[in-house]
Structure formats: C-alpha cells, structure tokens
Amino acid sequence: MGLGFGSLITSRTRAAVIMRLFLNPACGAYLRELAGELGCSTSQARGALKQLTKAGFLRFEQAGRQRRYHANTKHALFPKLRSMVHKALGMDRILDSIIDRLGNLELALLLDDYAEGKDSGIVGRVLVGSIDQRNLLDLVHNTERYIDRKIRTFCLTCDEYNRLRPNLDRRPQLLLWRGSERFDVGGGARTGAPDSQPRDGSDPTRPRAQAIRQADV
Predict the structure, then answer these.
(1) Which residue ranges does the chain devote to CATH 3.30.460?
(2) CATH 1.10.3470: does it fit domain 86-217?
(3) What is the side-by-side order of every strand in the sheet holding 66-71?
(4) φ and ψ at 70, to 5 degrees?
(5) Which residues lie across from 153 on neighbouring strands?
(6) Against a cut of 0.85, is the pTM above it?
(7) Handedness of CA 213, 201, 77, 31 (dihedral sign)
(8) pLDDT, tens digit (0-9, with 9 covering 90-100), for 86-119
(9) Contact 23/117 with Cβ under 8 angstroms?
(10) 8-75, which class in CATH?
(11) Nearest-angstrom CA–CA distance, 41 and 10
(12) pLDDT digits (tens, 9 = 90+) for 149-198
C-alpha cells in the first residue's frame, strides 16, 4: 500500500522534505545537501526521500552516482501540497489581505533562501504596487507570530522596481503573484495596458489566493 496523503506529516523529516522541495519545485536537492539543511542524519533523509519517491510525490535526476530530487509537479496532489506549504509560511494569508484591502498589488516575489526552498527562518518578499504600508506592517507582525519566522518586506512602486530590477535579478527569486501582463515572469514592467489574470496555488500568474508574498528585502 502506498504512502497516504494523511501520513505525510506524521514524520518530521518527510514534512521537512516536502517543505524544502515543494516551496520552489524548480530547486532540487541532493541527499547530503538535504540532510545538512534539515539537520537530520543521511539515513533519515534517505528514508524520507525513498518513501516520497515511491509514493510518486518526488522525482529524481541521476547525476553520476548521485540523485537530485525534485517535487513531482505532475502528481495529482501537487497543487494541494504546495498550497499547504504556502499556508504554513503565511504566504496566502498576506497576499489575500493585500489584494482584498491593502492596496493595488501588481507583483509579488519571494527572495533569497525561501526562493530556493530553504527554510532559513527569514522570509524575504518584494511587493510592487501601491500598498498601505502601515496596515501591512501590522499584518506582517501578526503573521510572523503565526508562522514563527521573520518576514522582511520591501514595497516598491513600478518605477522603483524597474530601477532596482538588475540588482534583484542577481538574487534567487520566485514569482508569487502577478496581477497583470504588464510584468513578465521575471519582473520588468511592460508597456501597454495591464490585463488582470486569475491565479491559484499552483499558478502564481493567476489571481486570488494561495500564493506566497513578501516585501521587505
């Protein structure tokens, strides 16, 4: 019998592996790399990887004698698992509040460690648009207590973002929300009228909830 969805979080190591690999599916990891980041033994990491791969939640690429593991984005439960990871980090909570009542959000990016899937305890986020920063500060503080992690937020206008983009593009980043086609996936503002797009937990270019957002670099 395969590994059930409900049993995924009964193991701290499995839950940590899911957090690491599902936060940014494009960033994989090797066995020893994961063990070092998660602070567990290689045997514990190996067991979790073996179980999750056998259940179809992970895939791997062979690199010589080593395997590099990634989240299996084609698994039927991938959107749900990724949404759970985002919720655990307060991503959807902050994004939805901004979209609903804190201003006009055009772009949201996750920066640095968390953009690479590493749960370092300091979440860097860039928010582009016209944001009510006073109320955002209260929201960020409440979310920090909820997720037990520090959130660094950086709010920019579109012009400010375009000026800073060359520097930001040198840092690891993950698209969390894009409100229109005015921005390409990596960032820079396009010319022409913006179009609003829908979004869900698995596609950050669509509108509404279950994404990550960060503003404070």
Answers:
(1) 86-217
(2) no
(3) 29-30, 66-71, 58-63
(4) -135, 160
(5) 125
(6) no
(7) negative
(8) 777 666 666 676 666 677 888 888 888 888 877 7
(9) yes
(10) mainly alpha
(11) 18
(12) 888 888 899 899 999 999 988 888 888 777 766 666 444 444 333 333 33
